[in-house]
C-alpha cells in the first residue's frame, strides 16, 4: 500500500441511474487503490451493476445492507472495510475526472491536516451552492430568514478555506478521520457533512475547497423516490446539529423557537418538493 493510495467510499441507495457511470469514472481515477460500495437496501438494480464491476475489478468490494441505516453509517462501514491512507467519500451520482481525487489529496497534504472538497456543478454547468458553506447560525435565522442560506461565494483563490463543504465529495486522511471518530451515525442523512466539517475544525485541522477542481454532480438522483423521507431526516439532522453544538449557548426561549422554526419548515418544504414533482 502506497502513501498516495486513496480508498473511494460510495454509499448507494436506489442509484441504478448513475452508479455505473460513477464507478467507471472511479476505476480510471489516478491513485484510487480501493473502491468500497456500501448499498443501503436498494431494490432497483443498483447492486447488480456494482457486482458486474466487482467481477472485473478486484479493487471493488461491496457491503449490501439489508435495510437503510443511513449515509453516515454507510460511510463508516466503507472506511472500516478499507485500509488506504486517504479516504474519498463520493456520492453515487458524482462523476470524477481522472486527476480530481489525486489533486484533492495533494491539497490536503499541502495544508498539513485537512478535509478538502471540490466545486460541484450539475449537468447544465450550474454551480451547487452547497459546495462551500458557513456554519448554521440558528439564532440569526430567527432574526433574519435570509440567513438560512449557508452558501459562501468563491473568493477567486484556487484553495479557499471554508467552514464546510458538501458531503457529495470529501477527501481527508484516514488518520484525521479516525482521530475524530468518523461520521456521527445518529444522523440518517443531511447535516452529517456539516457536523463532520465542524469537528474537523475543532480538532485543529482545516476545511477547504479547491475551486479549480470542478466535478459534475447529478444531484438528488436517489432521493427523488422518497422526498418526504428525505425532508424529514434533513430537518431531524438540523435539529440534532443545533442540539449538539449550539443549544448550550442559548436559553430555553431561543431553543424552543429554533425547534418551532425547524419543524414548522418541514411540512412547507415537503409540500414544495412534492409540488415540484
Instruction: Output the number of helix runs.
Output: 9
Straight-line distance between termini: 46 Å
Compute the average pLDDT. 91
Structural class: alpha/beta
Shape: globular
- How much helicity do the residues have? 25-40%
In CATH, the homologous superfamily of the largest domain goes by the name: Spore Coat Polysaccharide Biosynthesis Protein SpsA, Chain A
Radius of gyration, taken over Cα atoms and rounded to an integer in Å: 18 Å
The biggest beta sheet reads: 9 strands, mixed
Write down the CATH topology of the largest domain. Answer: Spore Coat Polysaccharide Biosynthesis Protein SpsA, Chain A
* Low-pLDDT ranges: none
Overall description:
The protein is built from nine helices and eleven strands. It is of the alpha/beta class and 277 residues long. The protein folds into two domains: 6-219, Spore Coat Polysaccharide Biosynthesis Protein SpsA, Chain A; 225-275, no CATH class. α1 (19-27) links the parallel β1 and β2 (32-40). α8 (227-245) runs antiparallel to α9 (252-275). The longest helix is centred in the C-terminal third of the chain and has 24 residues, at 252-275.
Record the SSE blueprint.
Blueprint: E1 6-12, H1 19-27, E2 32-40, H2 46-56, E3 60-65, H3 71-80, E4 86-90, E5 94-95, H4 100-111, E6 114-121, E7 132-133, H5 138-143, E8 159-161, E9 164-165, E10 169-173, H6 174-179, H7 192-202, E11 206-217, H8 227-245, H9 252-275
Parallel strand pairs: 1-2, 1-4, 2-3, 6-11
Antiparallel strand pairs: 4-10, 5-11, 6-10, 7-9, 8-11
Helix pairs in contact: 1-2, 8-9
